[in-house]
Amino acid sequence: MTAVYLYPWDLDGDPAAPELIESLGASSVVLAAAYHSVRAATPRHPRHRIVEAPSGLYVPVRPEAWGSLRPPSASGWAGEDAFNRAAAQVSLPVQAWVVLTHSSAVGRLDPSVCVRSAFGDVYDYALCPSSEQVRAYAQVLVGEVARQTGVSAMVLEACGPMGAGHQSAHEKTAGADWSPVDQALLSICFCRACTAAYAAAGLDVPAVAGAIRAGLGASSVEHALGASASVVLEVRRQAIVELRTAVVAEARAAGVREVSLHASTDPWATGPAAFLDSVAGGIDCPIAPAWELTTAGARRVLDLHRLGATRIGAYVTALPPVPAHAETLATHWQSLLSAGATDLHIYHAGLASTSRLTAIREAIEAVTA
User: Fold this and answer.
1) Rg of the chain over CA atoms, in angstroms?
2) In whole angstroms, what is the distance from residue 233 CA to residue 355 CA?
3) 316 near 290, Cβ under 8 Å?
4) pLDDT > 70 fraction of the chain, expressed in percent and rounded
5) In the predicted model, is pLDDT for residue 26 greater than 90?
6) β-bridge mates for residue 3, sequence order
7) In a domain? residue 58
8) How confident is residue 278, by pLDDT bands cut at 50, 70 and 90?
């Protein structure tokens, strides 16, 4: 299976877009239904070249469905019920792309449910899955998308904690030269729910926070935290499992037959790909991050295969810094398929230039021939 990713505005208002997307040779479209803020290029659209979109929901926001946390409606910049209007324009099967714990608009409603670092910094784009309110929000989000669209397949992104790294407007953190270990330490959450869970597990919470503050530059998280590291990980793992269980159950109850998940087997992973340590959680297709033109993606595919997954997606990109070269794309994608990937998730047909779409088309033809 090959799937290309799109935003609703890539199709809406562009009469030529549906035929162009269908000509790529993909077997389905993954269309954003609930998404974080983005500044997106639209290289071929007849009415605009850039869309500034805050976090939002691309189906109607029914006030009676929501609790204390509620996503903003995207109708102001994308039109009413943008997902369904866009989905109706393509003949390919459409999967709903739902981003769960990544929304600065929702985070600003209640900063207490956001990830808070050991330094007290609040990441308002990062909803913490330890919070019962966040899990309830995500469950309603999935249910509303499923019931209002009638999709049979859904792709879940950020089904776990977001971390310190975030490609926000005018991001100015790269010069700090934080290592992956530093990033992991800065991503450990001390929100109200997490601190209560740490304390219940027997941790001295101020001491753990102090160890993190003193531990930047350590060789590993375990070196910085000692025996506390495993307890912190277990609290996070339990929160991820509870979130995943709730949203998958809601999706199934709403008629979704196939649930895919952007996933990582790294226990300290944060961001779009959530930690996954078992395929027993109702996920039909875990999707491994595989953007780099290296062997890293193949290793992540193999890691998911070792969990027992029989269907595995590889998340690839045709955007910079990857060159707009069909042979390069096809060689990389074939290496992932050879490693055990069964599905290719291709980011992003709406953002790609016409030359990049040509490369996508030729690469899909090469790996599916």
Assistant:
1) 20
2) 44
3) yes
4) 100
5) yes
6) 28, 345
7) yes
8) confident
Place of tokens 């290496």: 335
Residues 78 and 87: their CA atoms lie apart, in Å, by: 13
Domain assignment present for residue 96? The answer is yes
Q: Which residues contact 174 (CB under 8 A, 6 or more apart)?
A: none
> What pairs with residue 275 in β-bridges?
264
Domain count, the chain: 1
Per residue in 43-62, is it b (16+ CB within 10 Å) or e — as a string?
ebbeeeeebebebbbbbbbe
> What pLDDT does 263 receive?
97
- The residue with tokens 């990049």 is 356
Straight-line distance from the first to the last Cα atom of the chain, in angstroms, rounded to the nearest whole number: 13
Closest to 215 in 3D by CA, of 128, 119, 121: 119
87 within some domain = yes
Q: How many helices (H) and strands (E) does the chain have?
A: 14, 14
From CA 72, how far away is CA 266, in angstroms rounded?
32
pLDDT at residue 325, as a whole number: 96
Question: What pLDDT does residue 213 have?
Answer: 97
Mean pLDDT of 67-75: 95
How many Å apart are CA 177 and CA 287, to the nearest integer?
29
Contact between 133 and 242 under an 8 Å Cβ cutoff? The reply is: no
Q: How many CB atoms lie within 10 A of CB 223?
A: 11
The range of the structural domain enclosing residue 273 comes to: 2-163+250-283
DSSP annotation string for 255-280:
T--EEEEEEE--TT--SSSEE---S-
- 368 part of a folded domain: no
pTM of the model: 0.96
- What are the tens digits of pLDDT across the range 314-360? 999 999 999 999 999 999 999 999 999 999 999 999 999 999 999 99
Chain segment 180-195, per-residue pLDDT in tens:
999 999 999 999 999 9
